[in-house]
Design brief:
alpha+beta, Lipocalin, eight-stranded mixed sheet, 29 strands
Length: 432
């Protein structure tokens, strides 16, 4: 894989994490990702390793995935932590740390939420990194962001939880108490109905294995580990691939009301089983069908301020067809999630089935005056979500080839709910 392509596919932390994260290109020289640095340079030797000493500057952000669970209701200070690096760290023009390196640490401070007005606290310290070759080094790092989290991250790296008394479910309880002041019997009925539908919110911080975070080095890291480039090659023949990509529709349409919406930004070459297995291994889950049952569960997740891993998505059409696959990755809130829609396309590319995908990152909930309903707001920088998906799939080891293909598409686009779409127009193509 070329350096330019590798840089392009390193997901930008500021676009992935919705709390207190600087863009990577502002964080440090080691993670400079200029938006236009994306053309293929000379192909580097696959499998070569860099064993020379590298100093990774303070401020460098490293993306990790927890491999153990952490819950403030049961965790104790000094409890060990483990995580894995999920995106390569590049210093200048060299790969310094490859995805797959292990990061370990401990819990510095833990505070549980036991009362409705309590705010849970989690302070994580990651203090060692080691690679598959046995190289180890001490690190000094703090949490810079938690992916798709309801919690907030302070500038000192502490994670602050929600307050149960401020959730939608708690506000309903408060409203029912006011009704009880005048209509005690009716309030009791409302309370019974509410309790049958909604649970009391749990304000403790509960991160399962698979939760993704960004850590930021607070001191320079001297690193001598060997870092191999990902063993993937470009898709050939490039000219034929370019013709295929540019012949595909680039714009989806909302089903109701019918409006132009998301831009397709990925293509997959492979069969259904290969694609589903890659996303499953990367931690993505299928979305539920949009129906009365899933709508009720969505309401509950919003009121209880929690996640809903199979939450439905609105229907978008490509050439008049709904998607064949809908996948998402959440954490502990319905408000934020990575999600994508995938359509099977006619024909084949050198014996492989063709799939086109539109991927975006939901970063919040808003009320649409135009449509008189609640809608997700997306991160406008959809190229970062393209990079997120590519990084996730590369990390599984199931991708054999990857290319980035130019497209000539209109600029200054927006989706069906009015969010702007900022993109270079290129499509990432992955072969399984």
């Amino acid at each position: 894989m070329t350096l330019a392509l590798l840089r392009e596919f390193r997901a930008q932390a500021a676009s992935r994490y919705h709390v207190n994260v600087k863009p990577e290109w502002e964080a440090s020289p080691s993670s400079t990702l200029m938006p236009k640095v994306r053309k293929l340079a000379a192909l580097l030797l696959v499998g070569t390793a860099c064993a020379m000493a590298t100093q990774i500057p303070a401020g460098t952000q490293i993306q990790i995935r927890l491999t153990i669970a952490v819950n403030t209701s049961t965790a104790k200070a000094e409890q060990p932590l483990e995580a894995v690096v999920i995106a390569p760290v590049v210093v200048g023009d060299r790969l310094a740390v490859a995805a797959g390196a292990k990061v370990t640490g401990h819990l510095k401070e833990v505070k549980a939420a036991t009362q409705p007005d309590d705010q849970a606290l989690l302070d994580l310290a990651f203090d060692q990194i080691d690679d598959a070759g046995g190289t180890k080094a001490k690190i000094a790092a703090k949490i810079a962001g938690v992916d798709n989290a309801r919690e907030s991250v302070e500038t000192n790296g502490q994670i602050k939880g929600i307050i149960a008394s401020q959730t939608g479910s708690a506000r309903l309880d408060q409203g029912i108490k006011k009704v009880a002041e005048k209509y005690q019997g009716f309030a009791g009925l409302l309370g019974t109905i509410k309790d049958a539908v909604l649970k009391a919110p749990d304000a403790n911080i509960d991160y399962e294995p698979g939760v993704e975070m960004t850590i930021e080095l607070t001191k320079p890291l001297d690193w001598t580990g060997k870092a191999n480039w990902p063993d993937v090659k470009p898709i050939e023949p490039a000219t034929e691939l370019s013709r295929l990509v540019n012949a595909e529709p680039f714009r989806t349409t909302a089903e109701s009301p019918a409006r132009p919406s998301d831009v397709t930004n990925l293509m997959f070459l492979g069969n259904t089983q290969e694609i589903e297995e890659a996303f499953r291994k990367a931690g993505w889950t299928p979305a539920a069908q949009l129906n009365s049952k899933s709508k009720l569960e969505t309401f509950r997740a919003m009121a209880e301020d929690r996640g809903y891993q199979e939450a439905p998505v609105s229907t978008l059409l490509l050439d008049g067809r709904p998607p064949d696959l809908v996948l998402e990755k959440q954490n502990d809130t319905f408000n934020a999630r990575h999600h994508l829609r995938v359509w099977k396309r006619p024909g084949e590319f050198h014996g492989k089935q063709i799939w086109v995908c539109a991927a975006t990152h939901d970063i919040g909930i808003d009320f649409s005056e135009k449509d008189r309903t609640f809608i997700h707001k997306i991160d406008s920088r959809i190229d970062a979500e393209r990079a997120k998906v590519v990084n996730d799939l590369l990390f599984t080891g199931l991708v054999t080839r990857v290319s980035l293909v130019d497209r000539q598409i209109p600029q200054n686009l927006s989706n069906a709910t009015g969010d702007t779409l900022e993109t270079d127009g290129e499509m990432a193509v992955l072969s399984f």
